[in-house]
# Entry
Amino acid sequence: MSRAIRRTPAAKVGITVAVIALLIFALFPAYWMVSTALDGKAASRGSQLLPQSLTLKNFSTVINDGGFGHYLRNSLLVAVITVVLSAMVALLASVAVARFRFRFRTSVVVMILIVQMVPLEALVIPLFLQMRQYHALNSLLALSVVYLAFSLPFGIWMMRGFVAAVPKEIEEAAYVDGAGWWRMFFSVLLPLVAPGLVATSVFSFITAWNEFIFALTFMSDDSKYTATVGLQKFFGQNTAEWGPIMAASTLLSLPVVIFFTVVQRRLAQGLTSGAVKG
Amino acid sequence: MPDPHQIVAAPAAARPGGGIPGSSRAPRRVPLGVSFGRGVRPWLLLAPALIVLALLLVWPLIRVGQLSLQDYGLEQIVSGKDNYIGFENYTELLSDPLLWRTVLPNTVVFALVCVVGTVALGTLVALLLNLLGPAWKWICSTAVMIAWAVPALTGTYVWVWLFDPFDGLMSKVFAGLGLIDPATSNWFTDRVGFYSIAALNVIHQGFPFVAITIMAGLTTIPRELHEAAEIDGAGAGKRFWSITVPMLRPVFAVVTILSTIWDFKVFTQIYLMPGGSGGNDDVLNLGVWSYLESFAQGSYGKGSAIAVLLTVILLLITGVYLRTLFKEREL
# Structure
């Protein structure tokens, strides 16, 4: 590493300071969330950087008294339905745009990109009215189907990169060996794009798990709240119970943070191959 | 790019290991099923996606346009009947001083500040990560990923807690330094204070995408370019502006435009802050205003008109985005 050797001491100090600043800025909010959740006297914490007493009391409060476990289960159910549906639908569509040349192909790709930009605030009004008409408010399945629509454009866009990365020759070899298209799809293409499918599924899981506006608008029945909506229960009229709120926030964030960092390289890869270099 | 089925024959002939007797027959003919599905198959594959997108994204978008031309309230919800009034919602909206003095400036200035902050910080972090050895690079990029992964909703609650006027860390620190009077000051009631905290939140969540994307882009720049420039006496700043920026122009364009789109339609991060859900008119942005007009005031028509305005702004930015993409390569 010739570059490293040429570095002056001043540059080294500068880099070290920058790394420390980055780590603090990136991680401090997450640290503050978890440490407040573990703090027995969270309300009077003030500027204490370390929790004054370690306890799981806040967690048991939100799960047992607040019913947050039930909300988390609702969120999980909605997210899993969304993931399963969107993985199937996005994969099929991405194969179409990555592997076939057909009339209006470019129009379809452009349309997929455009609908991705539509603000949720514009969709929530008509979808609320529609769902109300069909008596589908307070339905976890209806909510999942809406989330499917939101995660599809990005899912297709990302899967497209993964499908395009599979060499055509491998497909052709399958045809030569006598496989039909569907046989080739299931035995050759599907296993090869499976890592991409995992990354895409993580993305749609996160979309569904984090979503707030639609869950807030559609779900009026307490037993159907997802975790993002249920969390609001811990806010009083003018007060906030920060210990329980941070405990619930930690429970809500944990799966996302774990999933996301585990597949981070793959996701970054998918982002660059699908959305940036494509 | 050639048709996938046209090239079936050629490379297969050159396939290694084709030593099975009589295998030279194989490349001659495309399997029946393959040629049959040629015109229909892509549409078959696209059908589920197109149906879902049409029903849940395109139709609602048409519907919100229709609603924006109506006086649509509780009565219409119950009866399910349309009630067209022409462009009245739009004339009312465009002559509303709240739009021009508060909502539009909040939305636009906030988006600008966040985009500049996100892209600048993301670029600096990418350059920093690029200087580090593998171990520290892994540690720092994982930290950046965690900042990215924390959901907007919980992230917002943490920032609100940090700036809580009674017990928040920042309030205590600033009061300790004598910069604020803890008894009287509340950052959230002041428009600038409110949006500064929101900007901190949005930039904190947005810079990782920029950093990771630009870092991926940096690896595509040949190191020789930098070394040659260094030998010619170019400093780090000169090399950044003369090599990195022009080489990564397309990447910068994409992250800037995507950030612009995301920061224009910020909802959760504003709505969940104290006063953000209707308690304080000074801090409304287009998205929150549209939502409150509809669901809190019950005027779905006017809410839709605001939503249409936001959508049109975003579509214009999207148009620029697509033109950038098309310029760089074939879609």
